[in-house]
């Protein structure tokens, strides 16, 4: 068997499509079985650009002259599937007329895998962005439930250690006749009004460096001095209380329903912690919270009541009037004062990050 015969058998046996084409007119000298299966069996006068129509616009003239190589990818529709081929064309001059060696490799599977990988990559990126958005949404939600430093501890360790804060001031506000109003008003209207008011209260609380802890129905609870210490915690909550009432007075001028509130202030030790296992709530406990709640009950509508023990802390910025002593449930006799108004413009407090 001659070397030429061996080479021809090898070309027929390999899995790559191979064809030999005359350089002068692009007619076929030889093609193997894979080439015929992919592009059809070329006739005696068929040209390369007729068999592979995707090469009609290709400039193959320089291949013979300059000995260059031509590489391209072509797509061919076979029934419902599109096949992709990598085609490389080079020149050989070993026997008579120059011949173009056309090598065709079926890379359809490779391109399908690349497309699948790109699709998966796009899907992963999309899901990652969705997870990031959900993470940010959950973070904003949790920061509305607890102070930022508490959230950071919870995120890092999964639990929050109860913390005692010895010097904290508490402001508790409750609306007058809210139960009657809620009973005779559409719930949507009631919730809309409360949302409007509590949003304004949140801005006031932030302005004076306080922390809104929670709302309980129509009650609003905020503190100063926790989780970050504040030496002016008493005056901070007093300024919040006076601004609450001032806001309600101005709002009542332009709204059909007139909101009136009672406010209680107190100072003392407070414990703060996250409560619950599945439904997390940051809450505060302690004598100061109980005292503020009891004092607001004894306040007249649109007034602020504080224990006499806060009078000295408020003296530089507020005028107070003595109200006498009352027997408060669980607390005994407590001397009370009414916080009337600030003596001057309040000092703006630092805004602690939530």
TrEMBL record:
TM region positions: none
One GO cellular component, as annotated: membrane
Gene Ontology molecular function: any one: nucleotide binding
Gene Ontology biological process terms in this record: cyclic nucleotide biosynthetic process; intracellular signal transduction
SMART domains: CYCc
Source organism phylogeny: Bacteria, Pseudomonadati, Pseudomonadota, Alphaproteobacteria, Rhodobacterales
PANTHER family: GUANYLATE CYCLASE, GUANYLYL CYCLASE
Signal peptide span: none
Keywords: Lyase, Membrane, Nucleotide-binding, Transmembrane, Transmembrane helix
Localization: Membrane
Broad class of the protein's primary localization: membrane
InterPro entries per record: A/G_cyclase, Cyclic_nucleotide_synthase, Nucleotide_cyclase
Protein name: Adenylate/guanylate cyclase domain-containing protein
Organism for this UniProt entry: Tritonibacter litoralis
Xref: Pfam families: Guanylate_cyc
Superkingdom: Bacteria
Occurrences of domain Guanylate cyclase (ranges): 169-296
């Amino acid at each position: 068997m001659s070397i030429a015969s061996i080479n021809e058998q090898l070309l027929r046996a390999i899995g790559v499509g191979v064809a030999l084409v005359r350089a002068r007119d692009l007619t076929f000298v030889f093609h193997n079985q894979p080439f015929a299966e992919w592009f059809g069996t070329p006739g005696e006068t068929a040209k390369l650009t007729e068999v592979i129509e995707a090469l009609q616009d290709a400039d193959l003239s320089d291949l013979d002259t300059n000995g260059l190589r031509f590489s391209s990818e072509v797509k061919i529709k076979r029934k419902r599937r599109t096949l992709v081929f990598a085609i490389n064309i080079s020149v050989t001059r070993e026997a008579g007329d120059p011949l173009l060696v056309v090598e065709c490799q079926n890379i359809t599977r490779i391109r399908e895998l690349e497309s699948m990988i790109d699709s998966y990559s796009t899907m992963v990126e999309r899901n990652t962005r969705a997870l990031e958005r959900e993470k940010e949404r959950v973070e904003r939600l949790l920061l509305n439930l607890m102070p930022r430093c508490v959230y950071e501890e919870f995120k890092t360790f999964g639990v929050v250690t109860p913390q005692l804060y010895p010097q904290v001031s508490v402001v508790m506000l409750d609306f007058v006749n809210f139960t009657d109003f809620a009973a005779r008003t559409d719930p949507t209207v009631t919730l809309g009004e409360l949302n409007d008011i509590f949003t304004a209260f949140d801005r006031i609380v932030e302005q004076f460096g306080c922390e809104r802890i929670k709302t309980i129905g129509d009650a609003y609870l905020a503190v100063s001095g926790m989780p970050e210490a504040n030496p002016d915690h008493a005056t901070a909550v007093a300024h919040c209380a006076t601004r609450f009432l001032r806001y309600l007075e101005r709002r009542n001028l332009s709204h059909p329903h007139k909101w009136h509130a009672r406010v209680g202030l107190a100072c003392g030790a407070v414990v703060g912690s996250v409560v619950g296992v599945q439904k997390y709530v940051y809450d505060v406990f302690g004598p100061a919270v109980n005292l503020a709640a009891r004092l607001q009950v004894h306040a007249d509508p649109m007034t602020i009541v504080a224990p006499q023990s806060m009078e000295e802390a408020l003296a530089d910025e507020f005028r107070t009037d003595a109200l006498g002593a009352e027997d408060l449930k669980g607390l005994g006799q407590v001397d009370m004062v009414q916080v009337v108004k600030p003596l001057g413009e309040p000092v703006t407090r630092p805004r602690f990050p939530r």
